[in-house]
Design brief:
Layout: E1 2-4, E2 11-13, E3 24-28, E4 35-39, E5 58-66, E6 73-75, E7 79-83, E8 89-90, E9 101-105, E10 111-115, E11 122-124, E12 127-128, E13 133-135, E14 140-143, E15 146-154
Parallel strand pairs: 7-8
Antiparallel strand pairs: 1-2, 3-4, 5-6, 5-15, 7-9, 9-10, 10-13, 11-12, 11-14, 14-15
């Protein structure tokens, strides 16, 4: 799996077998040595207690894994529009519609993807989506020729000493 450092945005490969059944691992970035936690992609994303802001518990990042290279996009609002010429994420991909799809972050921390009637469709796991579809940690989806990956990182909270 591809890991992105939340500090320097450096990308590196991490072998999923190294989780050895654990839900998360603490890593040190080989570029900037920043330490952060990553979630096992085979474990469900942490559930945010109802009524709380999911952005206080997790960091939601969209990576471009193929197509025109873009900086990692940190989701900081409930709706993120992806399009060729409009939106928070502009792909400059001729196969992507002007207003292609949106990613929606719910209050419970769940993340959803919806095609906005695009010409070439939005693919999730290689299949066109026909309705709003749930994204999990490490989900990959495509808008035109641009492939994205959703990364969900728990936000480290300081522990009070007793």
């Amino acid at each position: 799996m591809i890991i992105v450092c939340p500090s320097c945005s450096g990308r590196f490969y991490y072998d999923e077998n190294r989780f050895q059944g654990r839900a998360a691992k603490r890593l040190g970035c080989p570029n900037c040595v920043h330490e952060f936690d990553i979630l096992n992609p085979h474990q469900p994303a942490p559930i945010v207690p109802s009524g709380l802001d999911p952005l206080k518990f997790n960091r939601y990042v969209l990576l471009t894994i193929s197509g025109v290279p873009m900086e990692p996009f940190v989701i900081q609002q409930a709706f993120v529009l992806i399009g060729r010429s409009e939106g928070e994420i502009i792909t400059h991909d001729p196969q992507c519609s002007r207003r292609h799809a949106h990613v929606h972050l719910e209050q419970d921390g769940s993340v959803w993807l919806e095609d906005l009637g695009s010409t070439n469709g939005t693919l999730l796991k290689g299949q066109p989506i026909k309705e709003k579809s749930r994204l999990e940690n490490n989900s990959e989806f495509a808008c035109g020729q641009t492939r994205f990956q959703l990364m969900i990182h728990p936000i480290a909270r300081s522990r009070k000493s007793t």
